[in-house]
Specification:
With about 130 residues, the protein is α+β, with helices and mostly antiparallel strands. The chain is about 20% helix and about 35% strand. Strands 1, 2, 3, 4, 5, 6, 7 and 8 form an eight-stranded mixed sheet that branches. Strand 3 and strand 4 form a beta hairpin. It starts with 6 loop residues before the first strand and ends in a 5-residue tail after the last strand.
Length: about 130
Amino acid sequence: DQSIPPIVAYAGAWHLVLATKDKVLHDSLEYDFEQLKAIMLREELTTLQLIYRESDSLFHSRNPFPVGGVVEDPATGAAAAAFGGYLRDRSIVEAPATITLLQGIAMGRPSTITVGIPLQGGITVSGTAISIE
């Protein structure tokens, strides 16, 4: 999705943001775990944030997290904050705004993350996630 150019965004950790206009492509996630982990460690990335924009305020997110030892993170607050700051800084959304990120659906652990994007200052992140025992 060229309206959301690739960037490395930061909110306490570095997240490579990659967006697609193709929902099928977004929903299919396959990668070489060790190879991606090595690249992410070399580039000092915490997650990759794979984005699909459903509407102006609704986004789907997948976050490969091999540096954390898991294939995918079902709810990534730091990445959501970094994404909100990126959207504001690049005027992709008009602040103030609130967006919703749906994450973890494909892995059976759905979460809803609400991102508050003020005109200036800190990005707020809140939401729900499924608990694990």
